[in-house]
What does this fold into?
Amino acid sequence: MIVASDLGKFYGSLEAVKGVSFSITQGEIVGLLGPNGAGKTTIMKILTCYMFPSYGDANVNDYNIYSDSLQVKRSIGYMPENAPLYPDLNVMEYLDFMADARGLAGNLRKERIDFAVDACKIGNVIYRGIGKLSKGYRQRTGLAQAILHDPEILILDEPTNGLDPNQIIEIRELIKELGKKKTVILSTHILQEVEATCGRVLILNDGKIIARGTTEEIGRGMKGEVILDLTVKGSDLDEAENSLSSLEGVKKVLSSKKVEDLKKNYHLSLTPDSHAEEEIFDWAVSHGYRIVAMIPERFSLEDIFIKLTSEGGENAN
It folds into this structure.
């Protein structure tokens, strides 16, 4: 659906984006993360044909950004961080104007406006002047124009900025629902939103992608191992540590402690990309143990973001 190949962008002598390549398939919700100045907005502007790259290429919905820029724009619903609103219009006038710009007419025009108004919960301000709206309602109006023409791809820059907690949850659920049928690129500084909404992330720093994948994949690559907390119940648990250590997918038993009678906890280091969890399950069955808990340790997205962007590390999952 979106394929970027060696994208780069210079602003004078400053190289803001440095040979970025990635692909996003239909139905994915991908978070684009990075500190200020990392190149996120520039990449979004290139993909929406707001500007051309200095080098590299991209295809969006099977259209090329150079030769098919109009078709690319028709395929995308774009909500920049500061939505392009007209304060002298009321919300309905603005959506009418955007429907005209998108070539919507007749019953389809009414259906799409009604859908956008309902989805973004702006019906109670539909005849209020945009200049008099709160920031939260301006954000909702900006999102309404992005989904108005039912685009195949949504590119959203800080869509929940300025919303209260209840509104954030509503927009999050809307994005997840839209993502079932559409491709979504979501840029936000609210890392909890990314974890709740996105299936995969691209983390940028200094114009380059320094990590990509799920939170678990990136965290695993950073540690070079998988840490697992295992609690089992049964007799002869003192002998369990030796047999656990002999499993192919278990690198090391880091620690063990008695939880209560006939119950013990083991802190394990597992070999990455192994089937250690399956081995452990089979091991428990064959030794007559009952698995009470099997919990993998994981980095939070905040841990990953801070570590990678402060240290400039790279993980190419």
